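Let's practice the habit of predicting before peeking. Look at the sequence and jot down your guess about where helices and strands might fall. Then scroll down.
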Amino acid sequence: MTKIAIAGVQGNIGREILSFLDENGYKASDIVALESKAPLGTQVSFSEDEDLDVFNLDEFDFANTDAVIFATNDVIAKHYIPRALAKNVKVIDCSSAFFADESVPLIIAGYNNDKIMATTKGLVASPSAAVIQMLSPLLRIHEKYNIKRIVVSTYNSTSVYGKEAMDELFSQTRRIYMNSPIVDDQKVFHKQIAFNVIPQIGDFIGEETQTEWAMNAESKKVLGTDIKVHANSAIIPAFIGSAQYVNVECNNDVDVDDVRHLMKNTDGIIVFDKNTDGGYVCLTDIQGEDNIYISRLRQDSSIDNGFSFWCVADDQRACIAKNAVNILKLILSLKQH
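Done guessing? Here is the structure:
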């Protein structure tokens, strides 16, 4: 019997991964739920009728586990992933803990599956949600038109920082309506998030934030090219999802109608693009959805061979969780052969 461990089950991404596993026919008996420093008796919901006992990651023996998905932060991933690898367990990392390791490939399932077989450590990583959302609609376009530059502006919901950040947005919004001060209610964000936009996601690395830097670096690693990416990332007062405006410049002559056709025929991509009022997809339309949605696709006449589009997704579900489970399926199928 296959045993799959999920580390970080109490976080947003961990819960979405459990949901995907349930929807893909995995049974509760197949799953081991793990959390760092989990108190005895902790449980997490798996399906409508079943809960999973949550085991303490600090004490868990990976020996009888076939694969483990780490939906944790970098610190926990760096500490515990070597323990799993030492037991010859296949590991999928959803953090950026091992990004700098050239032997750890960044996988977008369905695009660069061959790199799974090439890894020597038994460890593969999923790109960040922002990169999956941006690149997934572009993978087939890149193969045909050879993308050389992307300029992207991302508008992320508070869920990118987890439940505490979502609670802070709710609390501040409530206080504003109640005419109460919010000065003492800024724990996650350095600025008011309710009714505001904050141009920072992650710590600063020079002039860029971590998210902006990662979108450039991860794109290069996924595509294996010197593609240039300039990212501008902001947090908006929303609870779920991520929106992006993406401008693309290619080396080859671009036919936007063909770009639309290629996107429509890419798994996991839905093109809903009508040049009428409301003929586009917004964040409130995609909460709980499994796909990435494209609207406002058009020629960019300011450059040669350019086009732009609007892109929205339930980033933690349709990007990270979905990609992690699809990678898991690939790894388990390879083990069977």
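How did you do? Residues 7 and 34 are 5 Å apart (CA to CA).
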